[in-house]
Structures are given as structure tokens and as C-alpha cells.
Target: Exodeoxyribonuclease III
Amino acid sequence: MSKIVSTVNVNGIRAAASKGMLDWLAATEADVVCLQETRATDEQTRAALGPALEAGWVLSHAEPESKGRAGVGILSRRAPTAVRIGFGSTEFAASGRYLEADFDDVTVASVYVHSGEENTPKQDEKYRFMAEFGSYLKARTGEFVVCGDWNIAPAEADLKNWKANQKSAGFLPEERAWIAELLAAGYVDVVRALHPGVAGPYSWWSYRGRAFDNDSGWRIDYHLARGDLAGRAKQAVVERAAAYDQRWSDHAPVTVQYR
Model:
């Protein structure tokens, strides 16, 4: 089993690769890196990650059917024993929002949940995704961790300005209740478990205003693990850039070390 798993929404793989992601990949100790919002075809993603692939990283990728939207991937130090795209949904089969890979007896998955917008068709689509994906996750067994951009802050401690966002997508009661249902079904939010009772650690900051400088962020990127794997998480860090101009995405990598 891989010992260190990281997840990051790259906000466009071609842009991220040109801004510093390749340097981060060259330096990281992660064994597996889950990617979201590649916003690119398989060919474009491989081209953007060319130096990393030449250095030995193995890419599994689910390209999106809609140009410039979604797309998820998994980079690993060694080839997975099996890879599966999607979770059995007809509507979202080609959306590029879910990918999982087996590494011996452990499965690592990368998910990108819709961002949503309250009282719009976009939010309705998010709820349909949540319903189908939730059923899939609850039926899963074995050693399993699903990492990604969930676009939901589970609790008040997970976003800086929670009072002003009580009616905002990403912090709606229905969304938070869905995460609570997954936790009740046996999943563990390993970052929160390792950082109880603290604000954040945030993983996304708007590019607008001084959100990053003021650490006015949201914790919407996390690992949900089940089985013995959840109890083996021993350290979790958000790899926040040292300065605004050193960011290569509006999200930061969320990295967990498992025993």
C-alpha cells in the first residue's frame, strides 16, 4: 500500500503545469496524487505532465465529455493493478468526475463534486450526483479512500466566513447532511480527525480580494477513508503556498501519511 496520498484540484492541468506544479511533483514524497479539474483530454493531460511521466509517474485519467470542465486523474509511483472510471451512473458516466485505482488490497479514488449554485439547474445536477454517488460509497467495502474536491464544507470550522455563507452552495444544510450521512456510514474525514477543534485547515481560497493573504478560505478538499486504513492515518497537512504569487492553483494539496 502507498504510504503518502495527496489530493489537489489543479484548476486546469495545463495552467498548473506551467505555474509550478511540475516542480511540486518533483519534490513531493507522495506515493499517489489525486487530481481534480484537469479540464483536458487524455492527450492534453499527458502532454502537460510530460516531464513528470518521463521521471516515472504513472497517470490514470478520466477525461471530461464537456470541454474545459471537470476531469480527474491519479498519479502514482507504480502502476495500479486495476483502474475504473465512473461509479455505475448513466448520467455521469462520461463526466470525468470519478476515477479509482487499486494498489494491491487498497483502493484510492479521485472525485470532483460539482460546485453548484443554489436554486439553479446546476445545484439540481449536484444533488443528483450526490444521491447516486452516496449510494455507491455506502455500498463500498474493504480498504478504501476517496480523495478530492467535494465542494462542501462540512461544518462551521471548515470555512472562515460561515455566517455569511449559510445560504451559499457548498455550505447548504442538504449538502452538509450528505457528508454527515457518509460519516455515519463508516467513513472518516481523516484530516478533521487529525486536526480536531481547529478552524480549517483551509484548502481553497478565492483569487478575489485578499482571501489568501487573510487565510479566509474553505476546507472543501479532503480524504474520506474507511476500513483499517482510516485508523492508520497519522499525519495530515495542507501544503499552503508560502505566498500568493507562488500558487499554481486556487487549491492547495492536502497530503495524508498512512501507517
